[in-house]
Amino acid sequence: MYEFLDYRSKDVMTSKVVSVAPDTTLARAQEIFEKNDFNALPVVVKGRLVGLLTKLDVLKAFRFTAEETLPPYARLLDTRVEALMTTEVETVSPRTPLPRVLDKMVRERRRSFVVEDAGRVVGMIGREDLLRGLRRAAAGERAPGPHWVQD
Predict the structure, then answer these.
(1) What is the per-residue pLDDT for 145?
(2) Is the pLDDT assigned to residue 148 strictly greater than 60?
(3) pLDDT of 79-122, one tens digit each?
(4) Where are the extended beta strands (E) located within 13-119?
(5) Contact 20, 32 (CB under 8 A)
(6) Can you tell me whether residue 44 is helix, strand or coil?
(7) CA–CA gap between residue 86 and residue 52 (Å, rounded)
(8) Which has the closest alpha carbon to 138: 130, 149, 126, 147?
(9) All domains in the chain, ordered by first residue
(10) Phi, psi of 22 (to 5 degrees)
């Protein structure tokens, strides 16, 4: 298991990131969530992270309130992602040690983090990625490549 100490985000992250633009409709975001079973979608403009839309953000749009006992489902589907997304997004670097990512994920009860490098979205790292890293380390698989750069 000591091998896990050498793993970095880049060793297990998903690098083929599916993202949306701020003007994407909630209907389209919902389709992406259903098709890919993601927990979160980075909201990106020209490769730069401007927000994060989670499944919980989507659910919040459909809450029953005192003012609106029956949310207008069809109208809400036309809502733009930018109206629902979180703009204060905590990210990790590709070089962040996995034990630090694991600790942060557990402590903050997060499902995933956007991986950002030099201001650009380069990946996503979720619970399943961390579990894969733990399995690989438990099997004695060493982290690929040198990791002498500390974050």
Answers:
(1) 65
(2) no
(3) 999 999 999 999 999 999 999 999 999 999 999 999 999 989 99
(4) 40-45, 48-54, 91-92, 112-117
(5) yes
(6) strand
(7) 5
(8) 130
(9) 2-138 (3.10.580.10)
(10) -60, -30
